[in-house]
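ESCALATION

Customer reports they have been waiting on this structure for their group meeting. Please prioritize. Original submission:
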Amino acid sequence: MATMTGRGAGSKNAKEKNAKKVPELADLLERRDYMGAITLLEFDRKLFFDQKNASGWKPRDGTGAFEWVDGGNGTLTDEEKQQDEQRCMWLAYAAYHLGDFRKALDTYQTLVDGGSQDQMLHVYQGCCLLGLGWHAEAEEKAIQGPTCPLQNRLLFHISHRMNDENKLMMHHQKLNDTTLDQLSLASIHYLRNHFQEATDIYKRLLLENRDYTALNCYVALCYYKLDYYDVSLEILAAYLQANPDSSIALNLKACNQFRLYDGKAAEAELQPLTKDAPNIDKLDSALVRHNMVVFQNGERALQVLPQLVGVVPEARLNLVIYHMHNNEIQEAYDLMKEIEPTSPQEYILKGVTNLALGQQMDSREHLKVAQQYFQLLGASASECDTIPGRQCMASCFFILRQFDDVLIYLSSIEAYFPNDPTFQYNHAIAKAAAAKYKEAEPLLLALQSGTHAEELVRDYIFQMWLARCLVMNGKARQAWEIYLKIEGTQESFAMLQLLANDCYRAGAFLYSAKAFETLERLDPNPEYWEGKRGACVGTFQQIIARKERKEVLREVLAMLKSTRNPQVEYLSRVIKKWARENGLNV
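Update from on-call: job pushed to the front of the queue and completed.
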């Protein structure tokens, strides 16, 4: 019997030890398990009201007697009202921090409707409305609340969102040197792209509050925005050591890896957040869904990004970039048309979309708008010495056709793009346009033999610039071979015009004559005869000066005879006479 009793007691203790303990609200909030806190609070409220409203015999106060109470007739005592109000306050708090602003707003409204006299509820509702993006309503609610630091911080943020600079400065002046006020100020600096100012505040607060490890994440985010990706990763490591499962920190680390390396490296960092999802669409976090599209080079962009426009700030911009990469210029322009730019990326995309549409439609108006956006960003104090800022100034001068200035800006950032074919393309074209043909030619030839060779063969603008450089560098024969490769295409006529005129200017009269001869066959324009006549005479002069082979004289005569013009007979007679005198059979 003793053995059996001992076994039974041991089994009971084991069960008690292994039984799941109901979590405490304080523990859930400390662990930031806001969903767990909401579940616990809603369960407690339901249990309380179910018991309160249940029918049955209940003790009568102070008498020791019992009375029958019908269900639904139980009124709350003052103490019970206070307890339920406290539960509702925590419920709204947890919902707000979970990002469920609507639920938090409704919970606060329930308290107001229930007769709560706490005027701070109006300020809390204003915070929820700000989170929902209802700025005017948020301001109205905030003003109904009492004057306090939270109200001032809320109105400070609302002023920024509503672009009211006067109110922004007024509330800025009311901020104190407290941690919460300084955090609010730093966040406004960040939102206004003043990343260095935000960094300074966060670093100072971190020195004063070593336990505030989340500040490391904020500092890392600022350094990411300042393009110091290595520094950002180094600072982020301290936060991830304390919070290895932080979705925000892991996402920021992935973004740093994307900037430093590539999409594959970035995807690997997001593995803890994506491993349980069968595809991108099933990911809970909108931010992670967005970034996975970016890391995968736009894969599923049209399925994912349109739904995130207005949710993730960068979603619209990346959708524009996707359309631009796929030559869908009108779609990209439409997405940016109504946007008033506030960030460097928005200024750049406003300029790029207007530039692309201006080139497509041959619209001077769009080109002018693009030039202005590029100049606004490139000349700004905050961006003038950044790589994107200098690229913008180069684009501005490109549109203005001031190519010497273009080269000043491109040369200053050339070291940062050693293997970027787009940069090398623009740099080479700028050199050619600035008449630096000897410098441009090797750059163009290197591009033509690179990874994008097939694409550049079909790019007739590239081929025309290469042909011009070859002609101006005394290699007209190679330029003519470029024409022979595209002969019969729509672009061949423009190439002939370029070769005819450039070869004439460069003194390559034989190939100029060939080009004018072909142009004349395609379009009997008197100007082409005049050009051919001059080029033939120039070739004849070079033969006399022994700068050209005598054998080409037959080609010159054949080209002259193909035109029915009285001048042909005279020119042919002069050339034949010189040939006979010099023992040349033509």
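Sent to customer with the following note: Residues 394 and 410 are 6 Å apart (CA to CA).
Escalation resolved.
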